[in-house]
Automatic annotation (TrEMBL):
The gene is purN. PROSITE patterns: GART. Belongs to the GART family. N(1)-(5-phospho-beta-D-ribosyl)glycinamide binds at G12, S13, N14. One of its GO terms (molecular function) is phosphoribosylglycinamide formyltransferase activity. It comes from Cellulophaga fucicola. Keywords: Purine biosynthesis, Transferase. (6R)-10-formyltetrahydrofolate binds at R58, N102. The record marks D145 as: Raises pKa of active site His. This is Phosphoribosylglycinamide formyltransferase. One of its GO terms (cellular component) is cytosol. It catalyses: N(1)-(5-phospho-beta-D-ribosyl)glycinamide + (6R)-10-formyltetrahydrofolate = N(2)-formyl-N(1)-(5-phospho-beta-D-ribosyl)glycinamide + (6S)-5,6,7,8-tetrahydrofolate + H(+). Catalyzes the transfer of a formyl group from 10-formyltetrahydrofolate to 5-phospho-ribosyl-glycinamide (GAR), producing 5-phospho-ribosyl-N-formylglycinamide (FGAR) and tetrahydrofolate. GO terms for biological process: 'de novo' IMP biosynthetic process. The lineage of its organism: Bacteria, Pseudomonadati, Bacteroidota, Flavobacteriia, Flavobacteriales. Its EC number is 2.1.2.2.
Amino acid sequence: MKRIVLLASGSGSNVENIANYFKDNPLVTIATVLTNKRDAKVIDRCNRLNVNALYFNRQSFSKSDCLLNIIKGMQPDLIILAGFLLKIPENFVAAFPNKIVNIHPALLPKYGGKGMYGMHVHNAVKNNNETETGITIHYVNENYDEGAIIHQAKTAVISTDTAEDIAQKIHVLEYEHFPKVIDQLLSN
Ligand code: GAR
């Protein structure tokens, strides 16, 4: 049995997609979904999907080993960041080398780094008149969006696309690729 822990800060549509992808797979279980936002929509989704969800405060995450020790106790094979917006502290990176995987809504190294998340990314892509964008699935290291790239996928951007249209195209790519990449990593 492989165990994954998911971290999310917002809507959690990727969490829902991943949960649905693995729900009939007896070899993979979601140990829990952890969120740093008390009112995040991902909590409602987890309740509906019958998936454990836990809220944690920033102190227990960034300023102590409290959350780290809780996650260690879950013995995860992978820790998946699915729309998680806090920087991963060094004690996590050291404790789980090549086990923390992030999805970023752009073609890294473009549009990465601090402050580059969600609509900020899509607005920047739009404002720079990019003709393509995409997703990057990568390992997490101590710097924002700089860990080794595992998988990228591209989509075209046309001049009439709004930032919201781009966000939608990115979500389509994320739903298609992210669970499959996780599945592949778990079976390696
Ligand atoms: C996703 O598009 C994900 O790539 C992005 O947040 C969105 C979360 O959507 N992550 C980042 O921007 C991380 N820097 P969701 O909550 O509906 O899954």
